[in-house]
Amino acid sequence: MMKLKEFFIPFSGLKLGKHKFVYEIDDAFFESFDYQEFNGASVNIDATLEKMSTMMELQLDASGTINVDCDLTGESYDQPIDSNLKLVVKFGEEYNDEDDEILIIPHGEHQFNIAQYIYEMLVLAVPQKRVHPGVEDGTLQSDILEKLEELQPKEQKEPSEKTDPRWDDLKKLLTDK
């Protein structure tokens, strides 16, 4: 997989303290991971890198929408995304990203790539069960929903106005007293 070059953070030239980076995530980002679950994406990532003398802390904040298909109706909708991730970056003998919260990069490295972290954070930010907001509030008009309603067991119908004439005659006897 091609490493997404724009997601390299070149920390070696940065002064100690906090540094902001901003990324716009769209469909192409997920395509580069061969991920096809989403129809589209428009997510803003604010990355804040705090450089300290022996380590760094990275805070990723994501906000935006990811367009997905509703599990019930198949209709696509924009799923709001609001997620964050904190990553501690330390230096060690060799590269190690096995821990979700700690990245170890070799001494002498001058940059690291955050694309994988952004990707995982966003995939996990989308709910497992995807339900169009219009399904929950009843505003979604969809052929599939109408079909589902048609196939639902019907409630008992209201008693009809027509009555059995034999009963009518009996009732007359009661009222004719």
Fold blueprint:
Layout: E1 8-9, E2 17-25, H1 27-31, E3 40-51, E4 55-69, E5 76-92, E6 102-106, E7 112-113, H2 115-125, H3 133-137, H4 143-151, H5 165-175
Parallel strand pairs: 5-6
Antiparallel strand pairs: 1-7, 2-3, 3-4, 4-5
What does this structure look like?
Helices cover 23% and strands 35% of the residues. The chain has helices spanning 27-31, 115-125, 133-137, 143-151, 165-175; strands spanning 8-9, 17-25, 40-51, 55-69, 76-92, 102-106, 112-113. The strands form two sheets. A five-stranded mixed β-sheet has the order 2-3-4-5-6. Strands 1-7 form a two-stranded antiparallel sheet. The model has no long low-confidence stretch (mean pLDDT 87).
* Tally of strands: 7
- The structural class is alpha+beta
**Tally of DSSP helical segments:** 5
Largest sheet: 5 strands, mixed
Q: What is the ordering of alpha helices and beta strands?
A: EEHEEEEEHHHH
Describe the global form.
Answer: rod-shaped
Through-space gap between termini: 94 Å
Runs in which pLDDT lies below 50 for 5 or more consecutive residues are none
Mean pLDDT: 87
* Strand order in the largest sheet: 2-3-4-5-6
Helix content: 10-25%
Q: Rg, please? A: 29 Å
